[in-house]
Write a structure and sequence with these properties.
Elements lengths: L45 E6 L4 H6 L5 H30 L10 H5 L20 H9 L1 H5 L2 E2 L5 E2 L3 E6 L15 H11 L3 H8 L6
Antiparallel strand pairs: 1-4, 2-3
Helix pairs in contact: 6-7
């Protein structure tokens, strides 16, 4: 990721599907496939971090002995955070980047993700390494701009928060990395400047053995 002056702001690290596909013509995907190579000119990737959990602890304290209301407050905050992420993505598609300025979708279309572009989140199937949130938060200055903080294990606090990347490629789609082998683990560790042991901790759920 480059700044306006051409300097490198950050390097994003992703994994590629490694398991054999039933259809030999189907590619083993990586999120990097949806960004133009450096020799193809300028391309863009976006990032976002939103929360609807600011002040929630004070609200929860009012219902300290009321499990039902505690559960409902947390569930509502989580749903509102997801709705905020959906709204912001629509704003990016239609206005900020404007590549889908004529988009007109019903709620059913939004639920079925019938829009162009994706917003995968670090820690989820397409990019299972939660530590990539640290790079995202640095690029966005997310803590100072939103109040969201990362814990030592890269969980977001407040918990009612969503963050991730924007990919606008017309063929971009959600997918899962699945299981990776030790050769890709070693390569990933080298690219991120990690020890093999640290990389194994970060990617343990994605390891084939």
């Amino acid at each position: 990721v480059y700044g306006e002056d051409g300097s490198v702001l950050a390097t994003l690290h992703h994994l590629r599907q490694q398991a054999p596909k039933p259809d030999d013509t189907a590619p083993n995907l990586c999120l990097a496939d949806f960004v133009a190579p450096s020799n193809a000119g300028t391309d863009y990737i976006g990032g976002f971090a939103v929360t609807t959990g600011i002040g929630m602890e004070a609200l929860l304290s009012r219902y300290a002995d009321d499990d039902y209301n505690q559960i409902m407050i947390k569930a509502l905050a989580d749903r509102l955070a997801e709705a905020f992420a959906e709204y912001l993505h629509a704003h990016v598609r239609r206005e900020a980047w404007g590549y889908a300025d004529g988009e007109s979708l019903e709620n059913e279309d939004l639920i079925a993700e019938r829009y162009e572009g994706i917003r995968p989140a670090p820690g989820y199937p397409a990019c299972p390494d939660h530590s990539e949130k640290a790079t995202l938060f640095t690029l966005l200055e997310a803590t100072s701009n939103t109040g969201i903080k990362l814990t030592e294990s890269y969980a977001m606090t407040p918990a009612a928060a969503v963050s991730g990347w924007y990919f606008a490629h017309p063929e971009a789609r959600y997918f899962g990395i699945g299981k990776i082998d030790r050769d890709q683990l070693a390569d990933y560790a080298t690219r991120k400047g990690l020890s093999l042991a640290d990389a194994e901790v970060l990617l343990r759920p994605a390891l084939a053995d």
